[in-house]
Amino acid sequence: MPLPALAHARRWHGWAAGLGLAVLLVNLGLQILVHERDRLAHAWPASRALTHTLCAWLACTPTHHKLPDALVMDASSFELLDGQTYRLSLSVRNTSLQVLALPALELTLTDRQDQALLRRVIHARELPLSQDVLGPGESLHTQVGLVLDAAKPAWASDIAGYRLLAFYP
């Protein structure tokens, strides 16, 4: 009689091991889905609804694709409006075939020798825009007002140029 009981116990251990393996594989799949959610949503657009639902359930934030090489600065200008207020105007174009997240901007004010006087990062959320993405081939045109400290720094009169860089933090 002990032999059938041993066979039954082995069968039970086999089922338990199989079930444990299945649970671990589902867990691994969910971890990959959460970790690679943005890449999967862009490579396979049909999965976007699933990743958004999963993120709502797990309190994560889905983001848009980031391809810094696909961003082209078409035009920009930096001009003094009054004693301490400047206006930065810019146009950035998405050259990819994918929807991209809006970039942050690094503005560097320079002197006559092209030495940096001031650097400022302007995040996408600081831009006066109603969108948070840039569609394929789409251009972004915007203006940002910048005010130097009320006590105008001595170097402010040395501003001779600027550099503008679009990047993803």
Overall description:
With 169 residues, the chain is α+β, with helices and mostly antiparallel strands. The protein folds into two domains: 2-58; 68-167, Coagulation Factor XIII, Chain A, domain 1 (Distorted Sandwich). The chain has three helices and eight strands, in the order αααββββββββ. The strands form three sheets. Strands 1-2-7 form a three-stranded antiparallel sheet, with no helix packed on it. It is elongated, with a radius of gyration of 27 Å.
Question: Which features would summarize this protein structure in a list?
Answer:
Coagulation Factor XIII, Chain A, domain 1; alpha+beta; three-stranded antiparallel beta sheet; 3 helices; 2 domains; 169 residues
Determine and state the CATH class of the largest domain.
Mainly Beta
Q: Which structural class matches the secondary elements?
A: alpha+beta
Termini gap? 69 Å
Largest sheet: 3 strands, antiparallel
| Count of distinct structural domains | 2
Spatial ordering of strands, largest sheet: 1-2-7
CATH superfamily of the largest domain: abc- transporter (atp binding component) like domain
List low-confidence stretches: none
Q: Remind me, CATH topology of the largest domain?
A: Coagulation Factor XIII, Chain A, domain 1
- CATH architecture identity of the largest domain: Distorted Sandwich
Using the CA coordinates, give the radius of gyration: 27 Å
Listing every helix as H and every strand as E from the N terminus to the C terminus, the arrangement reads HHHEEEEEEEE
- Helices, by number, come to 3
Mean pLDDT comes to 81
Shape: elongated
What share of the residues lie within helices?
25-40%
Annotation, overall tally of beta strands: 8
Please report which band the strand proportion falls in: under 5%, 5-15%, 15-25%, 25-35%, 35-45% or over 45%.
25-35%
